[in-house]
UniProtKB/TrEMBL annotation, chain A:
<feature type="domain" description="ABC transporter substrate-binding protein PnrA-like">
    <location>
        <begin position="23"/>
        <end position="283"/>
    </location>
</feature>
<feature type="signal peptide">
    <location>
        <begin position="1"/>
        <end position="19"/>
    </location>
</feature>
<protein>
    <submittedName>
        <fullName>Nucleoside-binding protein</fullName>
    </submittedName>
</protein>
<dbReference type="GO" id="GO:0005886">
    <property type="term" value="C:plasma membrane"/>
</dbReference>
<dbReference type="InterPro" id="IPR052910">
    <property type="entry name" value="ABC-Purine-Binding"/>
</dbReference>
<dbReference type="Pfam" id="PF02608">
    <property type="entry name" value="Bmp"/>
</dbReference>
<dbReference type="InterPro" id="IPR003760">
    <property type="entry name" value="PnrA-like"/>
</dbReference>
<keyword id="KW-0732">Signal</keyword>
From TrEMBL, chain B:
<feature type="transmembrane region" description="Helical">
    <location>
        <begin position="216"/>
        <end position="241"/>
    </location>
</feature>
<feature type="transmembrane region" description="Helical">
    <location>
        <begin position="253"/>
        <end position="275"/>
    </location>
</feature>
<protein>
    <submittedName>
        <fullName>Nucleoside ABC transporter membrane protein</fullName>
    </submittedName>
</protein>
<feature type="transmembrane region" description="Helical">
    <location>
        <begin position="182"/>
        <end position="204"/>
    </location>
</feature>
<keyword id="KW-1003">Cell membrane</keyword>
<feature type="transmembrane region" description="Helical">
    <location>
        <begin position="89"/>
        <end position="108"/>
    </location>
</feature>
<keyword id="KW-0472">Membrane</keyword>
<feature type="transmembrane region" description="Helical">
    <location>
        <begin position="31"/>
        <end position="50"/>
    </location>
</feature>
<feature type="transmembrane region" description="Helical">
    <location>
        <begin position="136"/>
        <end position="152"/>
    </location>
</feature>
Amino acid sequence: MRRTLAALAVGLVATSAAAQELKVGFVYVGPIGDFGWTYQHDQGRLAVEQAFGDRVETTYVESVPEGADAERVIRQLAASGHGLIFTTSFGYMDATAKIAEQFPDVKFEHATGYKTAANLAIYNARFYEGRAVIGTIAGRMTRTNRIGYIASFPIPEVIMGVNAATLAAQKVNPDVEMTVTWVNSWYDPGREADAAKALIAQGIDVIMQHTDSPAPVQAAAEAGALAFGQASDMRRFGPEAHMTAIIDDWAPYYVKRVGQVLDGTWESTNSWAGFAEGEVVMAPYWNMPYEVAVEAADLERAIRLGRTHPFEGPVVDRDGAVQVPEGETASDAHLLSMGYFVQGVVGDLPK
Amino acid sequence: MEPFLISVMIAATPFLFAATGELVAERSGVLNLGLEGMMLMGAVTAFAATSATGSHLLGALAGAGAGVAMALVFAVLAISLMANQAATGLALTIFGIGASGLVGQPFIGQPLDSLAKLPVWDATALTRVITGHDPMTYLALAMAGGVAWFLYRTRAGLALRAVGDSHGSAHALGLPVTATRYAAVLFGGAMAGLGGAYISIAYTPMWGENMTAGRGWIALALVVFATWRPGRLVAGAYLFAAVTQAQFYGQALAIPSQFLAMAPYLATIAALVVISRDKALTRANAPACLGRPFRPDR
């Protein structure tokens, strides 16, 4: 019921009206006011407007449910003269692929999916690089050797984040245990805060999240635990708890791709950029000893320069099977289909 | 166990506010599906007022006021102009989602101090669970108790129920049907506004678009679940909050998370089955004129 209503509530919002060379459409899964995932995509959209001024017009549609409504919204954008359309959630994949087939002259970019076509590019960010950094910090900072992870849905994107953080934490603290709690939502401040409180009540003293609101940071601050922000710098919501945040910065990619459409060099690509391209950025380090911040920054640099990888073998799953042998590094294909938890992760993994 | 029960107390509070208000409106014969919209407007207004004045009391009052303003729009359309109540309520929700997002834009990413908690009486486990919450938690309970008293122990409450059960007879007896319904709907709006305010200034002190995340719809369901009785409503709100919170505590006990995710709805269906087995009871409590506009014929 709620989803249907949200769909009804969706309206097209055009943000400028002059004659332009290109209309760029954005489809968002949440409200731009989530201060998380969608907020950061919208910051990227604003960067496009900033960079190209009157040459482009941008349109966004927010809170579009994944499914049939998405198809309708994407078709509407394609049919109303948009030359480039970004669809910014995994669940838009089939709808985007279908509309891309029907509108061969329109260019599509789908975030976090895997279906491509001549006019359908895909892009994602290597958030697991940031997860490795916060895992290192968490491993150093936990006093109870128990870290909590507030997870949304059991998809590879989330699972690889849990594993990257766990592996990194274990490297600096072999006794560490990662407890995962599923909230089955990307955005529900109340439930996210409740999940954080439940984890802290179980003796966990460092919280990380793969959900979009700052509520877990706030709950951690209230309970005297430590936390990491997600998608944006959430320090203001818990200055005494917030250690750093993994910031999604889509602006470089959006500006680059819009520029390529304008000068005719756009091609369907598969972009998975991380620290090196500036798409994943760590927020300033707080609430930790100097040595820990230095260690985190060193790891950040090593990953950026390609000297290390968060998934260097051996990676062993919870059943004891070797997933990545010693001396090897997990391939992108392996990461994108990750369906196991590594040893040291506590909690159910829904199949 | 203690942290779990404390979480239940907190999580039940927004449901208690919104559902108690809706119960009064429905008992007067008006179905207002705009709870979610009124809660969101209450949430954003309370957040804005609290961050502007620094006073949570003023914030909560402003939230209630925003709920009343929304309910007034509904009342004019649905009571005076006799628009379809379900459609008007849905429109109110959709409007509330959009308008609160618009009004709330400057407050995104702004923190706020949480509503102060009262001291804990650290005598037993029970007192540690029950005491030490913020005043709004107790206000919600007091309001539910007050509504129960009002509906069943006062003449005005009897009149309100009469209006909801048979507006024609109530009118013939000289009861002010339209005025009663206005009052009930506006009270419902104030309570929904308080429920929203609780979310944005006490539960998770922040503003985020759509932050009530469907709690208005759950509150609506709770009213039916409670067969329009305040006592059952309180029990239902705590039960639903408990099953929801159990999701987070139960995962530590290695209960499959999918099972936990469906548990609240399973519990709701089970309770509805048990309740609806007693048809006479359901019918005795359901306001007979619920959703029907009143047109005075003389």
